[in-house]
Structure formats: C-alpha cells, structure tokens
Amino acid sequence: MDYTKYKILIIGDSNVGKTSLLLRHSDNKFTEKTAGTIGIDYRSKTYFRGDKRYDLQIWDTAGQERFRNVTKSYFRDAHGVLVVFDLNDPLSFTSVRAWLEMLYLETGKSKEDLVIILVGNKSDLLCTVSLEDIQTLASDAELSSYIQTSAKEGTRVDEMFESLLDKLVDKGSEIKAAEGCNLVEKKYNAANGKCC
Ligand code: GTP
Predict the structure, then answer these.
(1) What's the 173 CA to ligand 1 centre distance in angstroms?
(2) Per-residue model confidence (pLDDT) at position 194
C-alpha cells in the first residue's frame, strides 16, 4: 500500500513534557519521574484517512542546552512541529520564540512550509502564563494553531497529533513528504540499531 511519511518534531525547553506527550499518545502511559531525554529519539505511528495511509515519524528532542547541537542537527526535513511550553513555567514560554528561530534556521524553511502547533502543556496545574500573552505570540508568529494539553491526564493529547496530521494533509502538495529514509535518519538508525 502506498503511504505518505511525515517527519514531526517535538521541541521546547527541558521539563515541559515533550517525552510525556509522546508516551501518552503512543503507549497511553504517564510517569511522574522521567529521565530527561538524552539527545534524541523517535517513534513511528500509522494513521488512516479514508483509504490513505500516513506514517508519522515523531522525533522527541532533548530540551537541555547541553544537547542543543545534537538536537538541532535532526531538524532538517521536518514537515510538522509541536513547540511545547509549560503553562506553569513562564520561562519556558519566553523560550518559544528562540525555538522558532532555531527551527527556521536549521530547516531552512519558513512558517509557510511547515505546520507548527504551539502547545501549552500541564493544563492540570495552575496556569501562570497568561492566555493573552499566548494568543499574542501565536498571532505574531503566525502559527497554525494553539492547543492546551495535559500529558498527565491525557487531555487533548491525541487530538493534538490528529489535528497536526489533518493540517499536514490539508496542506497537501505544498509539503513534499519523504518516502523511505533520508540521510539524517539513516545516520540515526545506524547508530541506534534501528532500520527504516
Ligand atoms: P527533556 O527531555 O529534558 O527535554 O524534558 P521533557 O520536555 O521531555 O519533559 P518530560 O516529559 O520528561 O517531563 C518532565 C516532568 O514533567 C516529568 O516529571 C513529568 O512527569 C512532568 N509532566 C509532563 N507532562 C505533565 C503534565 O501534563 N502535567 C504534570 N503535572 N506534569 C507533567
């Protein structure tokens, strides 16, 4: 069966819940104590829209500064991006603009070439970032949409991934999805004993 493959990045500061969002979506699991992501990892997930198959290769990046060079070397060829901040941590929200700049620089793409969703995670906690500031950022940066999630409670997590795929499919021909592995993926797979 023919299928389309999209590369998705989850980016944002350390501790905002990137790994937790991916684990909630792929395994329906949540852990209170997580080990920070070292470098990068990915999961593949298959979706169907009518008789069409879509494979999302979802890359979970490390937010810690010391892994920044490794992290950004995997940005290339991305189609969709979840930029995550912690609703309870204003500093992680302030970092969003820097993550977007790094994304455009490393992918060589503009916002028109990508589907970018801004994600405020940990909605189960007290929100200390104002909704007004979030809306201003989403509108200034012309992001595709904004969603509030809780990886802990599973709130809107699946909806977020489904919505990202819908937007990628809607964008259709503007985004050239990859078939097979690109060079960056091959390098990662060879180093981690994975195959395409
Ligand atoms: P790095 O790998 O260092 O970049 O961190 P990360 O962004 O992947 O964060 P991670 O998923 O490891 O989560 C960090 C901490 O936040 C962990 O203790 C999680 O249990 C917690 N956490 C993640 N999502 C939520 C959430 O929705 N609500 C609450 N209350 N805690 C969360």
Answers:
(1) 35
(2) 58
